[in-house]
Specification:
A hairpin with a 2-residue loop joins strand 9 (228-235) and strand 10. This protein has helices at 2-21, 34-44, 152-222, 314-318; strands spanning 49-62, 65-76, 80-87, 93-100, 106-117, 120-130, 137-138, 146-148, 228-235, 238-250, 253-260, 263-274, 290-299, 323-327, 331-338, 344-352. It has an eight-stranded antiparallel beta barrel with strand order 9-10-11-12-13-14-15-16. A four-stranded antiparallel beta sheet has the order 1-2-5-6, with helices on one face. The chain has a four-stranded mixed beta sheet with strand order 7-3-4-8. 30% of the residues lie in helices and 41% in strands.
C-alpha cells in the first residue's frame, strides 16, 4: 500500500517536469544574438570610442520580446579632453585638460528593446544613460584656439594674447588721444567761429550805428531851422503849390511852418519828432522818419475851422491831418492821409531851396 502511494507521487513530479520541458508552461524567453546586440551598441557609441566587450542581461517583457540590459566595456581611440578654463582676450584661448587616455577601458551601462518574429530579432531604443559623462572629446572637437594646459603651444598662445592686449591698450590710448585732439580742435574752431561771428555782429552793429548816425545827421541837416522846401500837394489831377519851412530844432523835436506860396495868409504850424530808423506802418512798405502834426489854428483869408476858404481849398485839407515825410535826393516827399475826413490821400513832393 505504501509503495503504491510513493509511486503515484513520483509519477506526478515527473509529469510536471515533463510538462515544463515541453514548453507548455511558462519559460524564460530567448535573447537576441549577442553579436547583433554588440553591433547595435557600437552603432550608438561616439565615434571616438571603440567597443571592447559586452555583457547581456535579458528580461522578458512579453511572449516574443525582451528588454536587454547591457554592460559595455569601451576604450577611447585617442586621448580625450574637457575644457579646463576660458581665457578672455584676443583671440579667446580655451585651455584643455586630459580626462581619458587612449586605450583606457571604462564601463558603460544601457539597455535596448528586442522583439522576435520567428527567427528574426528587431532591436530598437538603444540607450546608454550611465557612463558617457565620464568621457571628454577628442582634441579636434574643440576650436582652433584650444590648447592643452601647460604645453608650449598653450603658453605661446597666452603670450600672444598678452601682446595683443598690450597692442589693443596702446591703440585705445592713441584713439583717446586722437579724440581729445579732435575735441580740442573742434572747440577751438567753434571758438574761432564764435569770435568771428561776434566780430561780424560788432561790425554790423557799428555799421548800423554809423548808418543810423548818418541818417540822423542827414535828417538833422534836412530839418535845421531855416531849411525851406517848396513843392506841390496833389491828389489825382488836383494840384496846389506848398512851402514848408523848419523853424525850430531841439534834438529830434522839430517845428515847421507850412504855407501857400500863392497866398501868404494861408499857413499852419506843425510839430513832430524825427526817427532815424523808422518802421513801415502796418500793411505799408514805406517808412517815414519825419511825422508832424498840426498845432493850433492856422490863418487864411477865408473862414472855416482853420479860418480858410474851404471851397476847393487843397491847403486846408493837407494841414488838417499829420504830415508824413521822408528824404529824397533833392528834398522831401510824403503824404497827407485825409481818408478819414473823406478827402482821400494827398501826395507831397518838395524840393529844398
Amino acid at each position: 500500500m505504501i509503495n503504491h502511494t510513493n509511486h503515484r507521487i513520483v509519477s506526478s513530479v515527473l509529469l510536471v517536469v515533463a510538462f515544463a520541458l515541453t514548453g507548455c508552461g511558462k519559460s524564460t524567453p530567448k535573447s537576441p544574438p549577442k553579436q547583433q546586440v554588440r553591433d547595435a551598441v557600437a552603432a550608438v557609441l561616439p565615434p571616438f570610442l571603440s567597443l571592447d566587450s559586452i555583457e547581456l542581461e535579458p528580461i522578458s517583457t512579453g511572449p516574443e520580446s525582451v528588454k536587454v540590459n547591457f554592460k559595455a566595456i569601451v576604450a577611447p581611440k585617442e586621448d580625450l579632453y574637457q575644457v579646463d578654463r576660458e581665457v578672455p582676450g584676443t583671440p579667446k584661448v580655451t585651455l584643455l585638460k586630459a580626462v581619458q587616455a587612449a586605450g583606457t577601458k571604462a564601463s558603460l551601462y544601457g539597455s535596448l528593446e528586442a522583439r522576435r518574429m520567428m527567427d528574426k530579432w528587431t532591436l530598437e531604443l538603444t540607450e546608454i544613460p550611465v557612463g558617457l559623462e565620464q568621457f571628454g572629446k577628442p582634441r579636434g572637437a574643440f576650436s582652433a584656439q584650444s590648447y592643452v594646459t601647460g604645453t608650449d603651444e598653450a603658453n605661446t598662445a597666452l603670450r600672444q594674447q598678452a601682446v595683443n592686449a598690450e597692442l589693443q591698450e596702446q591703440a585705445k590710448k592713441a584713439a583717446l588721444q586722437r579724440q581729445e585732439r579732435e575735441r580740442i580742435a573742434r572747440e577751438e574752431q567753434l571758438e574761432q567761429t564764435r569770435m568771428a561771428a561776434e566780430e561780424q555782429r560788432k561790425k554790423e552793429a557799428e555799421q548800423r550805428k554809423a548808418e543810423e548816425e548818418a541818417v540822423r545827421q542827414k535828417l538833422m541837416l534836412a530839418t535845421v531851422p531855416g531849411a525851406t522846401y517848396i513843392g506841390t500837394i496833389s491828389r489825382e489831377k488836383e494840384l496846389q503849390r506848398i512851402r514848408l519851412v523848419f523853424t525850430e530844432q531841439k534834438g529830434f523835436l522839430v517845428r515847421a511852418e507850412v504855407s501857400n506860396p500863392d497866398n501868404s495868409k494861408q499857413k499852419q504850424t506843425f510839430t513832430g519828432e524825427l526817427v532815424s530808423n523808422p518802421k513801415p506802418e502796418r500793411n505799408r512798405s514805406v517808412a517815414y522818419p519825419i511825422v508832424m502834426s498840426p498845432v493850433g489854428e492856422g490863418t487864411s483869408k477865408g473862414s472855416g475851422q482853420y479860418g480858410f476858404d474851404t471851397s476847393f481849398d487843397y491847403f486846408y485839407r493837407v494841414v488838417s491831418v499829420p504830415l508824413k515825410l521822408r528824404l529824397t535826393d533833392t528834398g522831401l516827399e510824403g503824404e497827407s492821409d485825409t481818408t478819414v475826413l473823406g478827402w482821400g490821400l494827398f501826395t507831397l513832393r518838395l524840393q529844398r531851396q
